[in-house]
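Help needed: design a sequence for this.
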C-alpha cells in the first residue's frame, strides 16, 4: 500500500495543540488555573480585589501563554525543518514500511518502530518516544485507511493504538 502526503502547517499546528492538551498534567493545571481565576472573580462580586490581582495575573499569564508558546514553537520547528515540508511517500508491507523523501529513502521493519497511534485526523508512526512521522488522513480515502489499519493490526512486534471503526 502506498500513501503520498505533504504536511501542511495548519495540520502540524493543530496536532501540536492536541498533543499538548491531551497530557493529564496540562489538562489539570489549566483547569485548576481557570477554576482559581473564576473563584477569585466570583468571590469578589465579579471583580478582582487588590489582594488577588497578582495571583490572577500569574494564573492568567499561565493560561494564555501556553497556547502562544505552542504556536511559536510549532511555527519555528515547521518552517525551519525543510524535510517536514517536503512531499513524503509511505509504503506499507506485511513486515516493514518504507519512507521516501526527495533526497532519501528509509526502510523500517515493524519491530524497529516504537509504536503507531491513530488520532481523529492522522496516524502517528513513532520511531522513538519523541520522533514520529505524521500521516494526515486528509490525504487518504476511506478504503486506504481501512487497509492501513489492517496492515498495522497484523504487523508482528508492533505496538498499535487504533480507533474503533
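Sure. Designed sequence:
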Amino acid at each position: 500500500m502506498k500513501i503520498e502526503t505533504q504536511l501542511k502547517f495548519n495540520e502540524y499546528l493543530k496536532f501540536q495543540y492536541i498533543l499538548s492538551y491531551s497530557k493529564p498534567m496540562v489538562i489539570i493545571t489549566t483547569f485548576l488555573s481557570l477554576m482559581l481565576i473564576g473563584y477569585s472573580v466570583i468571590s469578589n462580586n465579579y471583580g478582582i480585589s487588590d489582594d488577588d490581582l497578582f495571583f490572577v495575573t500569574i494564573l492568567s499569564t499561565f493560561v494564555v501563554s501556553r497556547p502562544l508558546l505552542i504556536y511559536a514553537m510549532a511555527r519555528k520547528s515547521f518552517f525551519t525543518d525543510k524535510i517536514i515540508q517536503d512531499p513524503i511517500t509511505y509504503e506499507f508491507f506485511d513486515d516493514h514500511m518504507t519512507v521516501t523523501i526527495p533526497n532519501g529513502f528509509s526502510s523500517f521493519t515493524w519491530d524497529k518502530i516504537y509504536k503507531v497511534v491513530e488520532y481523529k485526523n492522522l496516524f502517528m508512526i513513532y520511531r522513538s518516544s519523541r520522533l514520529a512521522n505524521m500521516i494526515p488522513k486528509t490525504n487518504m480515502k476511506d478504503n486506504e485507511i481501512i487497509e492501513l489499519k489492517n496492515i498495522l493490526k497484523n504487523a508482528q512486534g508492533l505496538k498499535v493504538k487504533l480507533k474503533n471503526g
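The first helix runs from residue 9 to 21.
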